[in-house]
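Hi,

I'm pasting everything inline rather than attaching a file, because the server keeps stripping attachments. The sequence lines come first, and each chain or strand is labelled.
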Amino acid sequence: MLSVEQFLTLAAILFCIGLYGALTKRNIIIVLVSIELMLNAVNINLLTFARFGLMPSIDGQIFTLFAMTVAAAEVAVGLAILIALYRNRNTSDVRDQDLMKW
Amino acid sequence: MFEGFELTGASIAFFLISLFVIACGVLLLNLKNVVYMALAIGGVFIGVAAVYILLEAEFLAFIQVLLYAGAITIMLLFAIMLTRHDEIESQTRITAHPVWSALGVIGLGGIILYVIKFSGIRWPNSAQESPFAGQDNVKMIGEQLFSQYVIPFELVSVVLIVAVVGAITLANKEDN
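And the predicted assembly:
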Protein backbone atom coordinates (compact mmCIF):
# COMPACT_ATOMS: atom_id res chain seq x y z
CA MET A 1 0.00 0.00 0.00
CA LEU A 2 1.41 3.34 -0.99
CA SER A 3 1.60 5.89 1.78
CA VAL A 4 1.71 9.67 1.89
CA GLU A 5 5.17 9.63 3.43
CA GLN A 6 6.73 7.78 0.51
CA PHE A 7 5.59 10.36 -2.00
CA LEU A 8 6.55 13.26 0.26
CA THR A 9 10.02 11.75 0.75
CA LEU A 10 10.52 11.33 -2.99
CA ALA A 11 9.42 14.92 -3.57
CA ALA A 12 11.76 16.19 -0.83
CA ILE A 13 14.74 14.35 -2.33
CA LEU A 14 13.90 15.66 -5.79
CA PHE A 15 13.55 19.21 -4.45
CA CYS A 16 16.94 19.00 -2.71
CA ILE A 17 18.64 17.70 -5.88
CA GLY A 18 17.12 20.60 -7.83
CA LEU A 19 18.14 23.16 -5.21
CA TYR A 20 21.72 21.90 -5.12
CA GLY A 21 21.90 22.01 -8.92
CA ALA A 22 20.47 25.53 -9.04
CA LEU A 23 23.03 26.72 -6.47
CA THR A 24 26.17 25.11 -7.84
CA LYS A 25 25.89 24.56 -11.59
CA ARG A 26 27.85 26.79 -13.96
CA ASN A 27 25.82 26.53 -17.14
CA ILE A 28 22.81 28.84 -17.02
CA ILE A 29 20.63 26.34 -18.91
CA ILE A 30 21.28 23.68 -16.31
CA VAL A 31 20.32 26.14 -13.56
CA LEU A 32 17.00 26.68 -15.35
CA VAL A 33 16.54 22.91 -15.59
CA SER A 34 17.19 22.52 -11.86
CA ILE A 35 14.46 25.03 -11.09
CA GLU A 36 12.11 22.93 -13.26
CA LEU A 37 13.09 19.93 -11.14
CA MET A 38 12.03 21.77 -7.99
CA LEU A 39 8.70 22.70 -9.60
CA ASN A 40 8.13 19.02 -10.44
CA ALA A 41 8.75 18.06 -6.81
CA VAL A 42 6.14 20.60 -5.71
CA ASN A 43 3.68 19.16 -8.25
CA ILE A 44 4.18 15.68 -6.79
CA ASN A 45 3.28 17.07 -3.35
CA LEU A 46 0.14 18.74 -4.69
CA LEU A 47 -1.02 15.54 -6.36
CA THR A 48 -0.21 13.49 -3.25
CA PHE A 49 -2.51 15.57 -1.12
CA ALA A 50 -5.14 15.64 -3.85
CA ARG A 51 -5.19 11.85 -3.74
CA PHE A 52 -4.42 10.98 -0.11
CA GLY A 53 -5.34 14.17 1.75
CA LEU A 54 -8.01 14.60 4.37
CA MET A 55 -10.43 15.93 1.79
CA PRO A 56 -9.35 14.33 -1.47
CA SER A 57 -10.65 16.12 -4.52
CA ILE A 58 -9.76 16.99 -8.08
CA ASP A 59 -8.75 20.57 -7.13
CA GLY A 60 -5.12 19.56 -6.51
CA GLN A 61 -4.85 18.30 -10.07
CA ILE A 62 -6.24 21.60 -11.37
CA PHE A 63 -3.62 23.51 -9.34
CA THR A 64 -0.92 21.26 -10.80
CA LEU A 65 -2.22 22.00 -14.28
CA PHE A 66 -1.89 25.75 -13.64
CA ALA A 67 1.57 25.30 -12.13
CA MET A 68 2.70 23.39 -15.22
CA THR A 69 1.33 26.10 -17.52
CA VAL A 70 3.18 28.83 -15.68
CA ALA A 71 6.34 26.68 -15.63
CA ALA A 72 6.17 26.32 -19.40
CA ALA A 73 5.82 30.08 -19.81
CA GLU A 74 8.75 30.55 -17.43
CA VAL A 75 10.98 28.27 -19.49
CA ALA A 76 10.07 30.12 -22.70
CA VAL A 77 10.91 33.52 -21.21
CA GLY A 78 13.99 32.16 -19.45
CA LEU A 79 15.44 30.72 -22.64
CA ALA A 80 14.72 33.97 -24.50
CA ILE A 81 16.59 35.92 -21.82
CA LEU A 82 19.42 33.40 -22.11
CA ILE A 83 19.66 33.85 -25.88
CA ALA A 84 19.69 37.65 -25.45
CA LEU A 85 22.40 37.39 -22.78
CA TYR A 86 24.46 35.08 -24.96
CA ARG A 87 24.20 37.51 -27.86
CA ASN A 88 25.31 40.46 -25.75
CA ARG A 89 27.96 38.89 -23.58
CA ASN A 90 28.91 35.79 -25.56
CA THR A 91 28.88 33.39 -22.66
CA SER A 92 26.48 30.98 -20.98
CA ASP A 93 28.34 30.83 -17.69
CA VAL A 94 26.44 31.97 -14.62
CA ARG A 95 29.52 33.59 -13.09
CA ASP A 96 29.84 35.99 -16.01
CA GLN A 97 26.32 37.36 -15.57
CA ASP A 98 27.35 39.82 -12.89
CA LEU A 99 26.02 43.10 -14.25
CA MET A 100 23.58 43.48 -11.39
CA LYS A 101 25.87 41.97 -8.78
CA TRP A 102 26.63 44.28 -5.93
CA MET B 1 10.85 3.03 8.82
CA PHE B 2 7.69 2.38 6.83
CA GLU B 3 5.30 0.85 9.34
CA GLY B 4 2.73 -1.51 7.94
CA PHE B 5 4.65 -1.79 4.72
CA GLU B 6 3.50 -4.54 2.43
CA LEU B 7 4.85 -5.59 -0.90
CA THR B 8 2.28 -4.95 -3.60
CA GLY B 9 2.59 -4.26 -7.29
CA ALA B 10 2.07 -0.55 -6.72
CA SER B 11 4.80 -0.29 -4.08
CA ILE B 12 7.29 -2.23 -6.22
CA ALA B 13 6.48 0.07 -9.13
CA PHE B 14 6.87 3.08 -6.86
CA PHE B 15 10.31 2.02 -5.67
CA LEU B 16 11.54 1.24 -9.17
CA ILE B 17 10.26 4.59 -10.44
CA SER B 18 11.78 6.54 -7.55
CA LEU B 19 15.07 4.74 -8.05
CA PHE B 20 15.01 5.78 -11.72
CA VAL B 21 14.03 9.38 -10.93
CA ILE B 22 16.66 9.85 -8.23
CA ALA B 23 19.34 8.14 -10.34
CA CYS B 24 18.58 10.53 -13.22
CA GLY B 25 18.68 13.47 -10.81
CA VAL B 26 22.08 12.43 -9.45
CA LEU B 27 23.31 11.93 -13.02
CA LEU B 28 22.16 15.48 -13.78
CA LEU B 29 24.36 16.73 -10.97
CA ASN B 30 27.38 14.60 -11.81
CA LEU B 31 27.63 14.48 -15.59
CA LYS B 32 30.09 16.82 -17.23
CA ASN B 33 28.66 17.02 -20.74
CA VAL B 34 25.78 19.50 -20.98
CA VAL B 35 23.90 17.51 -23.64
CA TYR B 36 23.93 14.40 -21.45
CA MET B 37 22.59 16.55 -18.61
CA ALA B 38 19.62 17.54 -20.78
CA LEU B 39 18.98 13.85 -21.52
CA ALA B 40 19.11 13.06 -17.79
CA ILE B 41 16.49 15.72 -17.10
CA GLY B 42 14.29 14.09 -19.76
CA GLY B 43 14.55 10.85 -17.77
CA VAL B 44 13.52 12.67 -14.59
CA PHE B 45 10.48 14.17 -16.32
CA ILE B 46 9.33 10.78 -17.65
CA GLY B 47 9.81 9.20 -14.21
CA VAL B 48 7.75 11.96 -12.59
CA ALA B 49 5.01 11.27 -15.16
CA ALA B 50 4.99 7.65 -13.97
CA VAL B 51 4.64 8.87 -10.38
CA TYR B 52 1.63 10.93 -11.51
CA ILE B 53 0.03 7.75 -12.85
CA LEU B 54 0.55 6.08 -9.46
CA LEU B 55 -1.23 9.10 -7.95
CA GLU B 56 -4.18 8.53 -10.30
CA ALA B 57 -3.63 11.71 -12.29
CA GLU B 58 -3.52 10.15 -15.74
CA PHE B 59 -4.33 13.33 -17.65
CA LEU B 60 -1.53 15.23 -15.92
CA ALA B 61 0.85 12.35 -16.58
CA PHE B 62 0.25 12.63 -20.31
CA ILE B 63 0.51 16.41 -20.15
CA GLN B 64 3.80 15.97 -18.29
CA VAL B 65 5.17 13.74 -21.05
CA LEU B 66 3.96 16.09 -23.80
CA LEU B 67 5.00 19.34 -22.16
CA TYR B 68 8.11 18.54 -20.13
CA ALA B 69 9.63 15.42 -21.69
CA GLY B 70 8.70 16.58 -25.17
CA ALA B 71 8.61 20.33 -25.55
CA ILE B 72 10.80 21.64 -22.72
CA THR B 73 13.59 19.08 -23.12
CA ILE B 74 13.81 19.70 -26.86
CA MET B 75 13.75 23.47 -26.31
CA LEU B 76 16.59 23.14 -23.79
CA LEU B 77 18.57 21.07 -26.28
CA PHE B 78 18.04 23.79 -28.89
CA ALA B 79 19.23 26.44 -26.43
CA ILE B 80 22.29 24.35 -25.62
CA MET B 81 23.09 23.97 -29.30
CA LEU B 82 22.57 27.69 -29.96
CA THR B 83 24.92 28.81 -27.24
CA ARG B 84 28.53 27.86 -26.99
CA HIS B 85 28.88 25.25 -24.33
CA ASP B 86 32.26 24.04 -23.29
CA GLU B 87 31.91 20.32 -23.88
CA ILE B 88 33.46 19.68 -20.52
CA GLU B 89 32.52 22.06 -17.75
CA SER B 90 35.77 23.80 -16.94
CA GLN B 91 36.93 23.43 -13.39
CA THR B 92 38.86 26.63 -13.01
CA ARG B 93 39.46 26.80 -9.31
CA ILE B 94 38.18 25.02 -6.25
CA THR B 95 36.03 27.27 -4.11
CA ALA B 96 34.09 26.76 -0.91
CA HIS B 97 30.83 27.64 -2.65
CA PRO B 98 29.67 24.05 -3.42
CA VAL B 99 30.48 22.98 0.12
CA TRP B 100 28.28 25.68 1.66
CA SER B 101 25.54 24.90 -0.85
CA ALA B 102 25.72 21.20 -0.01
CA LEU B 103 25.56 21.95 3.72
CA GLY B 104 22.52 24.18 3.27
CA VAL B 105 20.72 21.69 1.03
CA ILE B 106 21.45 18.77 3.36
CA GLY B 107 20.19 20.84 6.28
CA LEU B 108 16.98 21.70 4.46
CA GLY B 109 16.50 18.08 3.37
CA GLY B 110 17.11 16.89 6.94
CA ILE B 111 14.49 19.27 8.30
CA ILE B 112 11.92 18.19 5.70
CA LEU B 113 12.60 14.48 6.26
CA TYR B 114 12.40 15.00 10.04
CA VAL B 115 9.00 16.64 9.66
CA ILE B 116 7.77 13.88 7.34
CA LYS B 117 9.01 10.88 9.31
CA PHE B 118 9.90 11.53 12.89
CA SER B 119 7.93 14.53 14.10
CA GLY B 120 4.85 12.47 14.97
CA ILE B 121 2.55 14.11 12.46
CA ARG B 122 -0.30 11.75 11.74
CA TRP B 123 -0.63 11.82 8.00
CA PRO B 124 -4.03 11.09 6.51
CA ASN B 125 -4.79 7.40 6.36
CA SER B 126 -3.73 6.20 2.96
CA ALA B 127 -5.52 2.88 3.32
CA GLN B 128 -8.75 4.57 2.27
CA GLU B 129 -10.06 3.59 -1.06
CA SER B 130 -9.40 5.80 -4.03
CA PRO B 131 -11.58 8.93 -4.13
CA PHE B 132 -11.45 8.91 -7.93
CA ALA B 133 -12.42 5.26 -8.39
CA GLY B 134 -14.61 4.63 -11.40
CA GLN B 135 -14.58 8.23 -12.56
CA ASP B 136 -13.17 9.65 -15.73
CA ASN B 137 -10.13 11.74 -14.81
CA VAL B 138 -10.24 13.93 -17.92
CA LYS B 139 -13.96 14.54 -17.52
CA MET B 140 -13.60 15.55 -13.87
CA ILE B 141 -10.77 17.97 -14.65
CA GLY B 142 -12.71 19.45 -17.55
CA GLU B 143 -15.87 19.98 -15.53
CA GLN B 144 -14.00 21.70 -12.69
CA LEU B 145 -11.84 23.74 -15.04
CA PHE B 146 -14.79 25.17 -16.95
CA SER B 147 -17.09 25.73 -13.98
CA GLN B 148 -15.31 26.65 -10.77
CA TYR B 149 -11.92 27.61 -12.21
CA VAL B 150 -13.02 29.33 -15.39
CA ILE B 151 -11.58 32.75 -14.45
CA PRO B 152 -8.09 31.43 -13.61
CA PHE B 153 -8.28 29.43 -16.83
CA GLU B 154 -8.91 32.58 -18.85
CA LEU B 155 -6.20 34.46 -16.96
CA VAL B 156 -3.69 31.70 -17.72
CA SER B 157 -4.32 32.24 -21.42
CA VAL B 158 -3.35 35.90 -20.93
CA VAL B 159 -0.18 34.79 -19.11
CA LEU B 160 0.68 32.47 -21.99
CA ILE B 161 0.21 35.09 -24.70
CA VAL B 162 2.26 37.63 -22.71
CA ALA B 163 5.01 35.04 -22.22
CA VAL B 164 5.12 34.14 -25.91
CA VAL B 165 5.17 37.77 -27.06
CA GLY B 166 7.76 38.59 -24.40
CA ALA B 167 9.97 35.68 -25.43
CA ILE B 168 9.85 36.73 -29.09
CA THR B 169 10.60 40.35 -28.18
CA LEU B 170 13.53 39.38 -25.98
CA ALA B 171 15.09 36.94 -28.40
CA ASN B 172 14.51 39.19 -31.41
CA LYS B 173 17.63 40.88 -32.68
CA GLU B 174 17.37 44.65 -32.83
CA ASP B 175 18.89 45.89 -36.06
CA ASN B 176 18.89 49.58 -35.33
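The radius of gyration of chain B is 21 Å.

If the labels don't parse on your end, tell me and I'll reformat.
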